[in-house]
Design brief:
Elements: E1 9-13, H1 18-29, E2 33-36, H2 41-51, H3 63-77, E3 82-85, H4 100-128, E4 132-137, H5 150-170, E5 175-182, H6 191-194, H7 197-204, H8 215-226, E6 237-240
Parallel strand pairs: 1-2, 1-3, 3-4, 4-5, 5-6
Helix pairs in contact: 1-8, 3-4, 4-5
Length: about 250
């Protein structure tokens, strides 16, 4: 079993902090050449310095911007082998309080962005006759209902189904599309929720293994799905939830 990715060029969308940064670090540790994006220019430069690559920024809500970004990236790198669609947005609110702006922002980042990023790269792979592997970072909220997450849950459920459809379309061409669906992972992005004793206790009571996730729990799954160890796996969503979605 070899999880090394030596020399593989991987694009991690949303690599500036939290889970995305942990995934990018894990890929780099396994020998991958990591290109990471952020919406923020300063963070993009920090990512580039961290991995010794170029600073990258992209508007995930705009398909034309994504296609132009991919064209520039392919010219810069000579080709990308692997893709991790990690960037995500959650605006927790009761459903009756969700505005059209909230809805469009969440679905734009969590669904529109991954779709057009993946199809732009896949088009290049198909035209060149090369293979590729993609991991979409979904969520347990796309599998089971979680309160105050109507837009977020809908976007992640759609991303899980999109993973299946794209996998089916491109399987015969050697392009694999998979997803991971984590539970609550301890990062700076979940700090406010998990540091609330009452809310944390309530959520922990839904996780049979009795703990929240750590970034490394997700990193290992992404490494597996990206690499050749999972060569026969496509269209699959791997839940990393400590049993949250069992019931």
């Amino acid at each position: 079993m070899n999880f090394r990715l030596d020399g593989k060029k991987v694009l991690v969308v949303g690599a500036g902090r939290g889970l995305g940064r942990a995934i990018a670090d894990g890929l780099a540790e396994q020998g991958a050449v990591v290109y990471g994006t952020s919406r923020d220019q300063a963070t993009s430069r920090e990512i580039a310095e961290r991995y010794g690559t170029a600073p990258l920024s992209v508007d995930l809500s705009d398909a034309d911007s994504i296609r132009a970004f991919v064209a520039d990236l392919l010219e810069l790198t000579g080709g990308i082998d692997l893709l991790v669609n990690n960037a995500g947005l959650n605006i927790p609110k009761p459903a009756v309080e969700v505005t059209e702006q909230d809805w469009n922002a969440v679905l734009g980042t969590n669904l529109t962005g991954p779709f057009f990023m993946t199809t732009a790269l896949a088009k290049a792979w198909l035209e060149a006759g090369t293979t590729g592997s993609v991991v979409n970072v979904a969520s347990q909220a796309g599998i089971v209902a979680i309160e105050d997450r109507a837009a977020y849950g809908a976007s992640k459920a759609a991303l899980i189904h999109l993973t299946k459809v794209l996998a089916l379309e491109w399987a015969s061409k050697g392009i694999r599309i998979n997803a991971v669906a984590p539970t609550f992972i301890r990062t700076e992005l979940t700090e406010s929720t998990l540091n609330d004793p009452q809310r944390a206790a309530e959520l922990l009571g839904r996780i049979p293994v009795g703990r929240f996730g750590q970034p490394e729990d997700v990193v290992g799954a992404v490494l597996y799905l990206l690499g050749e160890t999972s060569a026969l796996v496509t269209g699959h969503t791997l839940t990393i939830d400590g049993g949250y979605t069992i019931r």
